[in-house]
Write a structure and sequence with these properties.
Elements lengths: L2 H15 L5 E5 L9 H10 L2 E6 L4 H7 L5 E6 L4 H5 L2 H17 L5 E8 L14 H14 L7 E5 L5 E3 L7 E3 L4 H14 L7 E3 L2 E3 L7 E5 L2 E5 L2 H14 L4 E3 L10 E3 L6 H4 L10
Parallel strand pairs: 1-2, 2-3, 3-4, 4-5
Antiparallel strand pairs: 6-7, 8-9, 10-11, 12-13
Helix pairs in contact: 5-6
Length: 283
């Protein structure tokens, strides 16, 4: 499996195993007849909207969101990317003024920072290709320094035109040629900070030890792959060998599989045995 498949596969798994916890809305300030922020917050709460994205940092808006419980994504406009990309200090000041203060003093539930707004649109003619990723790195570093990296995550908002397909079909999809390597760099950077992990793994009702390391799950092409610590894998194989006397025999016909057993009797479909596993299930 190539790197792109693994990266996109992991992102696919993260989206599939996530539980929908609310409805989100975009909140922009470019309007001829703006409503008072307090009125908008009241409308959001009355309609059960629990998440909101702000395209920039407006103090009146953030003050109105204080103690509302609504999860907030604050956005960094594209015209600020250059200054943040070129200065760690500027990024630290931005985080202190626009994130830390509102969290600690006003109890605003800021959960995300969007670095740029669709900065790789083709119509921008590459204007932000050199500044988006450095700005992302500097904002991430500033959040770590502020002690907020576990609470506030960093992302980049993209338009669907970051993708193209050589075949015209979804299965032929890839990142656009002109931004392919940059997109992979950004995604891999994100994986260093945010990844799925197995909390507990059982074989039937027997718990398997994960040791001191975290297991990672990758979903790709309709199959799930679980990367386990060596001790867990060895333990699992030992358990399977114990039940091999029931008629299972090792099959070496598929060289792509490190180890595989077949049986001379019907074996339950995954949909009937998924309750044995405490890890996220993907079909």
């Amino acid at each position: 499996m190539d790197l792109l498949s693994r990266v996109i596969g992991l992102l696919g798994l993260l989206s599939m195993v996530s539980v929908v916890s609310g409805i989100g809305a975009n909140w922009g300030t470019q309007t001829t007849h703006p409503l008072p922020p307090e009125t908008i917050v009241k409308l959001l709460r009355e309609n059960g909207i629990q998440k909101v994205k702000l395209f920039d940092v407006d103090y009146g808006t953030l003050n109105a969101l204080a103690k509302s419980g609504i999860e907030v994504m604050v956005g960094i406009p594209n015209d600020m990317l250059s200054s943040l990309a070129n200065s760690v200090k500027a990024s630290e000041r931005w985080v202190s003024k626009n994130v830390s203060t509102h969290i600690t003093s006003n109890n605003v539930n800021i959960r995300y920072v969007a670095v740029g707004n669709e900065p790789f649109l083709e119509t921008y003619n590459g204007s932000y290709l050199r500044t988006t990723y450095p700005a992302l790195q500097n904002i991430q570093s500033a959040l770590i320094k502020a002690g907020l990296s576990n609470q506030v995550k960093v992302t980049v908002s993209h338009n669907a035109d970051v993708y193209e397909s050589s075949t015209g079909l979804p299965s032929g999809g890839d990142f656009r040629t002109d931004i392919h390597d940059l997109m992979l760099t950004i995604v891999i950077h994100s994986l260093e900070f945010y990844h799925t992990e197995i909390v507990k793994l059982n074989y039937e009702r027997t718990p398997l030890s994960l040791g001191s390391r975290k297991g990672k799950i990758v979903f790709d092409s309709g199959s799930s792959y679980t990367y386990l610590p060596k001790e867990t894998y060895t333990q699992l194989i030992a358990y399977v060998e114990q039940v091999s006397e029931a008629g299972l025999y090792q099959d070496t016909s598929d060289e792509t599989l490190p180890i595989c057993w077949r049986g001379g009797f019907p074996i339950s479909c995954r949909i009937f045995i998924k309750h044995f596993y405490s890890m996220p299930y993907v079909d």
